[in-house]
Write a structure and sequence with these properties.
mainly alpha, 7 strands, 465 residues, Rossmann fold, 72% helix, 3-stranded antiparallel sheet, rod-shaped, single chain, 9 helices
C-alpha cells in the first residue's frame, strides 16, 4: 500500500498549494477590482474632461484585471482537478488497503481452517486403530462362531433329545449375526463418512489451490498496476495523471478483488492422506462384508441341517410316542404337533394331543393327573427310544399311577432297560419287582441313615418279593 499512500499524500500537498495560489489570485483580483472601481469613479467625475493618460490607465487596469481573473479561473480549475485526483487517489488507496486487509483476514481464516483440518486428520488417524481392533475382534468372533458351528454340527445327531437347546442355540446365532450386521453397518457408515469427507476435501483442495494462485497473481498485479510516486513528487506529475486511466485501473482492481475467494494451500496433501485412509478402510470393509457373507451362508446351512434333522427326529419321536401311549393306556392314540409363532418364522412350541381309550381327543391340560403322568412317561420313553442315553434317573414318576397302569409302566420300563441303565426312585412294589438291584435307605436307633443293597438275581425265587 506504500505507493498508494505516497500518491495520496502528494495529492493532498498539491491540493493545498492549489488552494493557496487560488486564494492569492482571488485577493489580487479583488485589489485590482477596487482600483478599477476607483478609476471608473474618477473617470465619471471627470466626465468628458479625461485626458489621454487617464484613458490609457483605465485600459491598462482593465487588462490587468482580466489577466488576474483568468489566472484565478485557471487556478480554480487546477485546484478542482487536483482535488478530484486527490479523491480518486484516496479511493484507490482505501480500496487497496481494504483488499490487503481482506487478504490478511482470509489468510488468517485459512490458517485456522488448516488447523481444524489437521485436527480432523489427527482424529481420523486416532480412530483407525479402533477400527482395526473392531475388525480383528469381528474376525475372531467369526472364527469362534465357525468353531462353534462345527461343534454344533457334531452335536446335531442328538437334536431330537435336545430340541429346546438347539432352538436356543439357533436363536443365539441369529442374534450374533444381527450383532455382526449391526457392527458392519456402523463400520459402513463410518466408511461412508470418510468417503464423503475425502470427496469434499478433494473439491475444496482444488478450488482453494486455484483461488490461492489467482489471489497471489491478482494481488501482485493490483499493487504493480498502481502508479509509483515519491514523497517529493511535484504537483506537475500529479497533473499529468490520466483520469480515464485511473478509473479503468480502479474498476479492474475492484473486479479482481470481487473474484478472489478463500483458499487452502494444504488441501491437496489432506486429500492424499484422506484418500489413502479411504482406500484402506474400503479394503477392510470389503473383507468384513465377505466374512459376514460367509457367516450368513454357514448359519443358513446349519439352520437347514438342524431343521432337517429336527424334523426327522420329531417325526420319529411322534411315532414312538403314539406306540407308547397305546401301550401305557392299553389303547387310544396320541400325536405331537408343532405350534407356529404368530410371525410364522419359528416354531412356538410343541402341542401334545392324546385320545385315551373311550374318550375324544384332548390336550394335555384337559387330562387327569394319572393320564398326564402316563403321557409324560410315554413321551420320555419315546425320546429315549429314538435317541438312547447311557443312563436315566426317574424320581417317583409312578406315584400317580394305579395298579393297572403300574403294571404296563413296569413292562415298558423293563423293555427299555435292555439298552439303557435306569435309576428309579419309587415306593411302588410293582416297579421294584422289575429292578435288577434294590437300594434301600433305613434309619438306625441312633438316628443314623443306612443304605442297604440287594441284587434280586441272587435271591432265591421262593424268597423274592
Amino acid at each position: 500500500h506504500l505507493a498508494s499512500r505516497d500518491e495520496y499524500d502528494d495529492a493532498e500537498r498539491a491540493g493545498r498549494r492549489a488552494r493557496e495560489e487560488t486564494d492569492a489570485a482571488e485577493a489580487a483580483a479583488a485589489r485590482h477590482a477596487e482600483l478599477l472601481a476607483g478609476s471608473e469613479t474618477e473617470l465619471a467625475a471627470l466626465s468628458g474632461d479625461a485626458t489621454p493618460s487617464v484613458d490609457a490607465g483605465v485600459v491598462h487596469a482593465g487588462a490587468g484585471l482580466r489577466d488576474l481573473q483568468a489566472a484565478a479561473d485557471g487556478a480554480r480549475e487546477r485546484r478542482d482537478r487536483l482535488a478530484q485526483q486527490r479523491d480518486e487517489a484516496r479511493e484507490a488507496w482505501t480500496a487497496t488497503r481494504g483488499a490487503a486487509e481482506e487478504v490478511e483476514t482470509r489468510t488468517a481464516g485459512l490458517r485456522r481452517e488448516r488447523g481444524l483440518r489437521e485436527a480432523r486428520v489427527t482424529q481420523f488417524a486416532a480412530s483407525l486403530p479402533a477400527a482395526r481392533a473392531t475388525l480383528e475382534r469381528l474376525t475372531d468372533e467369526r472364527e469362534a462362531l465357525a468353531v462353534e458351528s462345527a461343534r454344533a454340527h457334531q452335536a446335531d445327531t442328538q437334536a431330537a433329545a435336545h430340541q429346546s437347546a438347539a432352538e436356543v442355540t439357533r436363536r443365539a446365532r441369529r442374534a450374533e449375526l444381527l450383532k455382526l450386521e449391526s457392527e458392519a453397518g456402523g463400520a459402513g457408515s463410518s466408511l461412508g463418512d470418510l468417503e464423503r469427507a475425502a470427496q469434499a476435501t478433494a473439491i475444496e483442495a482444488s478450488r482453494r489451490d486455484d483461488a490461492l494462485s489467482a489471489l497471489a497473481r491478482e494481488r501482485e498485479l493490483a499493487l504493480e498496476g498502481l502508479p509509483e510516486t515519491s514523497a517529493a513528487a511535484p504537483a506537475d506529475e500529479i497533473d499529468a495523471l490520466d483520469d480515464e486511466t485511473l478509473e479503468v485501473e480502479l474498476r479492474r482492481v475492484r473486479r479482481t478483488l470481487s473474484q478472489i475467494g478463500s483458499v487452502n494451500p494444504f488441501a491437496v496433501e489432506e486429500h492424499r492422506e484422506v484418500a489413502s485412509r479411504l482406500e484402506k478402510m474400503t479394503s477392510q470393509d470389503d473383507d468384513l462384508r465377505s466374512a459376514i457373507g460367509s457367516t450368513e451362508e454357514l448359519i443358513a446351512t446349519l439352520d437347514s441341517e438342524i431343521n432337517q434333522q429336527f424334523g426327522a427326529a420329531f417325526r420319529a419321536i411322534g411315532e414312538k410316542f403314539d406306540e407308547y401311549c397305546q401301550l401305557l393306556f392299553a389303547g387310544g392314540s396320541a400325536s405331537l404337533q408343532m405350534a407356529e409363532e404368530a410371525d410364522g418364522e419359528a416354531p412356538g412350541g410343541i402341542e401334545i394331543v392324546v385320545r385315551p381309550p373311550g374318550k375324544r381327543l384332548q390336550r394335555l391340560a384337559m387330562l387327569s393327573g394319572g393320564e398326564r403322568a402316563l403321557t409324560g412317561v410315554a413321551l420320555l420313553f419315546a425320546m429315549l427310544t429314538v435317541n438312547p442315553v447311557p443312563f436315566c434317573i426317574l424320581d417317583e414318576v409312578d406315584a400317580a399311577l394305579d395298579e393297572a397302569n403300574i403294571g404296563r409302566f413296569a413292562q415298558a420300563l423293563r423293555k427299555l432297560a435292555e439298552s439303557i441303565d435306569f435309576v428309579v426312585i419309587t415306593h411302588n412294589r410293582a416297579t421294584i419287582e422289575v429292578a435288577d438291584t434294590i437300594y434301600g435307605v433305613t434309619m438306625t436307633e441312633a438316628a443314623v441313615s443306612r443304605v442297604l443293597s440287594l441284587r434280586l438275581a441272587d435271591v432265591p425265587a421262593e424268597m423274592s418279593v
